[in-house]
Amino acid sequence: MTNYKDKIAVVTGAGSGIGKELALALAQKGCRLSISDINSETLSETVKAIEEIGVEVIAKTFDVSQRKEAFAFAAETINRYGGADIVINNAGKALDSIHVSKMDIEDFEYIMGINFWGVVYGTKAFLPYLKRSKEGALVNISSVFGIYGIAGQSAYCTSKFAVRGFTETLRMELYVEAPQLTTICVHPGGIKTNIARNSKEAINDDRSKDDNELRMKEFEDKFLVMPPSRAAEIIIDGITRKKERVLIGRDARRSDLLARIWPSKYSRMILRSLEKAGILNE
Ligand SMILES: NC(=O)c1ccc[n+]([C@@H]2O[C@H](COP(=O)([O-])OP(=O)(O)OC[C@H]3O[C@@H](n4cnc5c(N)ncnc54)[C@H](O)[C@@H]3O)[C@@H](O)[C@H]2O)c1
């Protein structure tokens, strides 16, 4: 993308973390924004910050896992702006670490609803308009956990692998249908956001609140290191340079390499490092 001025940019999950920083950075570049989040309070803070930058913004509070609401959001965006040039399906949620054997299927469905179906709905709802953009970009946020599987995170990993599969498939189709469109799959490593703090408590979790708080704090301190503003910068650089796959952070690049060189051996290697860090539990 060469010019951001007056482009229409859509960002879900814009109330916090990477989504918020993306919305602000795109506003700084002169885009008009349509943003959403399930949390109306944090969403209005982002709206206020965008208004202070001085560009147009509309906002909708809804749950991305609700198909009708996702399509209504697209309709409202098109009614207001008449099109969409950048769509970033960013909203996402984690689940507290729990093994498959213990996990309630409801938790699995909940995470898939947001992280996978939310991305599919967001993509489908905006795709007809994106295809009309002269130099549009569809950006779906996967994760480093869309590259390798990690114990305790089956639902999250599955949802993020699914986002990758969906996005990479669609990309090939769009080469034929809309070659001017860039389809980007983003794999962030550890970014210092509220993702761990906002994670859903697993239904069958039998750990105490204090134990969970301690584990989360340890995870945040050890793994969530890059500021979200830097992650947003890297994603926007990817849009500018039409990069179809964006890895964010040294940890993401290292894991990507590991999973490609040792596609099955990596499981034991990562298990050992989790054991060493003391953050593995059954
Ligand atoms: N932080 C990381 O280390 C990291 C790493 C890899 C991938 N990611 C992905 O990046 C994306 C952004 O996450 P973040 O790290 O900024 O976390 P965050 O928790 O700070 O922000 C996520 C935002 O999504 C919103 N959200 C959650 N569920 C929603 C729903 N059902 N409908 C609408 N909005 C909803 C939240 O309210 C929040 O504002 C997510 O898809 C996440 O999975 C994050």
Could you please describe the fold and organization of this structure?
The protein is an alpha/beta fold. It has a single domain (8-277), classed as NAD(P)-binding Rossmann-like Domain (Rossmann fold), CATH 3.40.50. Helix content is 51%, strand content 13%. The chain contains nine helices and seven strands, in the order E-H-E-H-E-H-E-H-E-H-E-H-H-E-H-H. It has helices at residues 17-28, 40-53, 67-81, 105-130, 154-177, 209-223, 228-240, 250-261, 266-277; strands spanning 8-12, 32-37, 57-61, 86-89, 137-141, 182-188, 245-248. Strands 3-2-1-4-5-6-7 form a seven-stranded parallel beta sheet, with helices on both faces. Helix 5 (154-177) links the parallel strand 5 and strand 6. Helix 1 (17-28) runs parallel beside helix 2 (40-53), helix 3 (67-81) runs parallel beside helix 4 and helix 4 packs parallel to helix 5. The longest helix has 26 residues, at 105-130. The protein is globular. It starts with 7 loop residues before the first strand and ends in a 5-residue tail after the last helix. 43% of the residues are buried.
